[in-house]
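Appendix C: a fully annotated inverse folding record. The material below is reproduced so that readers can follow the format used throughout the book. The structure is listed first as tokens, followed by the designed sequence.
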């Protein structure tokens, strides 16, 4: 008689769980490596970058990874020395654009002086200041490897027109100048100050910041454009985060594509006499829903001076200053007219 075939027992459930966990961790490391840098990491960085990526799981009081596995940068989720040592050998240049139109030129001095203390220290930085008052641009002492370019643009009697032109001007300047001079770019609001380190931990292919007014609420409360007729339309079942328009960043070429698409949709709305709920910010949020950012900055990178610090926001790196809108914006009321401020 033939002996029965031996019964092969399945591996213990604990073994399967362990293998699955290890495979998941490996996948996370490979994916997050892609988000960490668009370039091949220098050979002399060793394996330390894995430790830095794992740092995004150190904070248990906040969500530090998006559903699509992009890091959300909070204090305590990265080693500043380690991450700077990863990026510095790349000899990067970071472009920084600000619009100082009309009376907003009065905010420029504080913006630049605080940037020189906290923004991308020991990296090459090129500031691009767009203004209709070039003679009022303040003289600020810049550190070595940091430069300021003043670009004249027309003024306007309506702040809405200034907002409408922002994406177009950034797009055109990237095309004609910035792409030849920088690797990464951050487009920031000038009526803001830096208060704490803003470094290489913020670099990524496409970078956005969670709006400080909506980081702790559900998407049905986000102020997306809800009218289907608008090219910025977001339905009630859409949305990941509400991103602030005061900070847009990433690789120069990726921001070039973003500004081109947002401006296109802005102009299509204008042809139909539609203005999105929060102008360019509404179009930005729609774009980032369909084109997920590779890195998301926490509200530490876009706070508001009138807001008290919370337990989750341990440091404030960059914040919008308190101001009288009627005094600085043409045809503006005295209350905020953008969800970004």
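Designed amino acids, in order:
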């Amino acid at each position: 008689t033939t002996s029965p075939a031996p019964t092969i027992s399945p591996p213990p459930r604990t073994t399967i769980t362990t293998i699955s966990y290890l495979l998941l961790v490996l996948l996370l490391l490979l994916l997050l490596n892609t988000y960490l840098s668009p370039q091949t990491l220098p050979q002399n960085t060793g394996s330390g970058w894995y430790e830095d990526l794992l740092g995004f799981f150190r904070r248990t009081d906040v969500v530090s990874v998006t559903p699509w596995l992009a890091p959300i940068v909070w204090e305590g989720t990265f080693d500043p020395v380690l991450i700077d040592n990863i990026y510095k050998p790349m000899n990067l240049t970071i472009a920084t654009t600000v619009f100082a139109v009309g009376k907003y030129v009065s905010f420029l001095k504080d913006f630049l002086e605080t940037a020189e203390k906290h923004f991308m220290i020991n990296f090459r930085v090129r500031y691009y200041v767009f203004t209709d008052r070039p003679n009022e641009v303040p003289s600020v002492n810049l550190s070595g490897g940091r430069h300021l370019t003043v670009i004249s643009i027309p003024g306007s009697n309506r702040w809405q027109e200034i907002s409408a032109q922002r994406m177009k001007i950034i797009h055109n300047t990237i095309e004609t100048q910035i792409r030849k001079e920088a690797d990464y770019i951050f487009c920031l609001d000038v009526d803001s100050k830096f208060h704490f380190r803003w470094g290489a931990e913020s670099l990524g292919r496409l970078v956005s910041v969670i709006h400080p007014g909506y980081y702790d609420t559900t998407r049905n409360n986000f102020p997306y454009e809800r009218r289907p007729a608008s090219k910025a339309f977001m339905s009630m079942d859409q949305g990941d985060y509400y991103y602030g328009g005061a900070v847009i960043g990433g690789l120069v070429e990726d921001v070039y594509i973003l500004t081109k698409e947002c401006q296109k949709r802005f102009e299509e709305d204008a042809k139909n006499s539609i203005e999105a709920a929060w102008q360019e910010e509404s179009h930005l949020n729609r774009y980032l829903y369909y084109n997920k950012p590779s890195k998301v900055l926490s509200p530490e990178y876009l706070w508001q001076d009138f807001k008290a610090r919370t337990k989750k926001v341990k440091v404030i790196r960059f914040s919008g200053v308190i101001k009288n809108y009627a005094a600085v914006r043409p045809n503006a009321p005295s209350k905020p007219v953008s969800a970004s401020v």
